[in-house]
Design brief:
This protein has six helices and 15 strands. By secondary structure, the chain is of the alpha/beta class. The structure holds coenzyme A. The site of coenzyme A has 15 residues, from strand 14 and strand 15.
């Protein structure tokens, strides 16, 4: 109970830390009365306690009532750390075996779901300080590392290491600790767009093929890179 209250206080504080709109004089009242993301997490904290006490049905019913009111569906089994903030709320879905670290932020329309083919732990794990942009989908039993930013509208189906920015469908890493990811840096300086990067690789491969007498596949950097990325794509 004390732990739940502590978590709710941290969730309340998180709204002020992360939403500039909540800093008016009566901001605290505004948050209490009108922030559906905050209402959803408070309800979840209670549902989760009931779920862990193995009380049947009641947590699910409460979470469905909360969904009806807030537009946020969090399965009572989901484990969520302190300082959790859902901005705007509507359309967020969080699956049963999801694990969320501390100080995570989700925007509206985010799904933390399964792929439909897994059993057991089938939803993602989000580590501390992850931010997930509006409408992004993170699917399957994958791990999103600390301080990762997931761009709005992305669909992420593979684990992402700490400190990355991932965007697009399927989600591709476009920054690692604020820099271009080293494994796809072709010294083209200004090429963070993953589709453009793939096109450059293809162009390079064609150049190698057309010059195939000089190109030794075993020593050719481009061939090695293409092989590495194709292998990653298949995993
Ligand atoms: C991903 C995000 C967090 C920015 O992270 P960042 O580490 O600062 O990354 P940058 O802004 O440097 O962008 C890196 C590259 O990804 C691209 N990018 C950023 N967000 C993207 C997105 N959602 N989809 C596709 N590409 C995106 C940028 O254009 C940039 O490419 P460029 O270098 O070719 O211009 C931000 O763009 C985002 O999507 N935030 C979500 C915000 C949101 O949902 N708001 C809702 C408010 S209601």
């Amino acid at each position: 109970m004390i732990k739940t209250t502590f978590f709710i206080m941290k969730d309340f504080k998180a709204v002020f830390d992360r939403d500039p709109a909540a800093r008016s004089i009566l901001g605290w009242l505004e948050v209490l009365l009108t922030y559906s993301g905050f209402h959803a997490i408070v309800s979840h904290r209670i549902c989760h306690v009931l779920f862990k006490m193995k009380i049947p049905l009641v947590p699910r019913i409460l979470s469905q009532i909360t969904r009806f009111i807030t537009g946020v569906e969090i399965h009572p089994g989901a484990t969520i750390g302190e300082g959790f903030f859902i901005d705007h709320g509507m359309g967020v879905v969080i699956g049963e075996t999801t694990e969320i670290g501390n100080n995570v932020t989700l925007y509206q329309g985010v799904t933390l779901g399964g792929t439909g083919k897994e059993t057991g732990k089938r939803h993602p794990t989000l580590q501390d300080n992850v931010v997930v942009g509006a409408g992004a989908k993170i699917l399957g039993n994958i791990t999103i590392g600390k301080n990762v930013k997931v761009g709005a509208g992305s669909v992420v189906v593979r684990s992402i290491p700490d400190g990355c920015t991932v965007v697009g469908v399927p989600g591709m890493i476009v920054r690692q600790e604020g820099k271009l990811p080293s494994e796809i840096n072709l010294d083209h300086g200004d090429l963070p767009n993953p589709i453009r990067q793939r096109l450059i690789l293809l162009q390079k491969e064609i150049e190698c093929l057309s010059d195939h007498i000089k190109c030794d596949k075993d020593s050719c950097e481009v061939h090695k890179m293409v092989e590495k990325i194709t292998k990653n794509d298949k995993q």
